[in-house]
Amino acid sequence: MDPFQPEKASDVDHIKALQLEIHQTFIDMVKARRGAKLQDNDDLFTGQFWTAITGLQLGLVDGLGDMRSHLRAVYGEKTKLNLIQASRGLLGRKNTGGISHGHLLGAAGESLMNMLEEKSLWSRYGL
After folding, report:
1. CA gap 119, 125 in Å, rounded
2. pLDDT value at position 117?
3. Which residues pair with 65 in a beta bridge?
4. Which residues pair with 99 in a beta bridge?
5. What is the distance between the alpha carbons of residues 55 and 62, in angstroms, rounded to a whole number?
6. How far apart (Å, rounded) are the C-alpha atoms in residues 28 and 35?
7. SUPFAM superfamilies attached here (predicted)?
8. Burial class (CB in 10 A: 0-12, 13-18, 19+), 71
9. Spatial separation of the C-alpha atoms in residues 30 and 35, rounded to whole Å
10. Of 6, 41, 46, 109, which one has the fewest beta carbons inside 10 Å?
């Protein structure tokens, strides 16, 4: 399965077998989890996808709505939901997970050079 070598029929067969196994595992998990809620539909596990309304009709979801409304319906109107967001630094900018802005700016030139070098290497293969 070397991307730089001609395609082998045995490799294609192996990948297709893996895909079938993964797909069957997915089907089994959905059927075990959703059970009798699923509609009997031949297109259900063909790889097609649907809107939320059709998913509801097929039994793929229990309901439609947003998280806040659902949590309040289940746990009561007094349920408090806190918004979690990145903290802001001294200059009002969002913190970047512990990496200082100065470090990011200093590394920008090096990152650019690395990116250009990598692009040059891949271009040899037409990629």
Report:
1. 10
2. 83
3. none
4. 96
5. 9
6. 10
7. ClpP/crotonase
8. middle
9. 8
10. 6
CA dihedral 24, 20, 58, 31 (to 10 degrees): 0
Task: Tell me the two tokens of residue 95.
Answer: 């913190």
- Read off the tokens for 115: 């990116």
Q: Which of 59, 33, 29 is nearest to 44 (CA)?
A: 59
Q: Please report, in angstroms and rounded to a whole number, the separation of the first and last CA atoms in the chain.
A: 17
Give the pTM. Answer: 0.54
- The tokens describing 25, both together, are 């595992």
Cα separation, 68 vs 81, in Å, equals 8
Q: What is the rounded CA–CA span in Å between residue 79 and residue 88?
A: 27
Where are the chain's structural domains?
1-64
Digitized pLDDT (tens) for each residue of the chain, 127 residues in all: 888 999 999 999 999 999 999 999 999 999 999 989 999 888 899 989 999 999 999 999 999 999 899 999 999 999 988 888 877 766 666 655 555 555 555 666 777 778 888 888 888 887 7
Residue with tokens 């309304």: 53
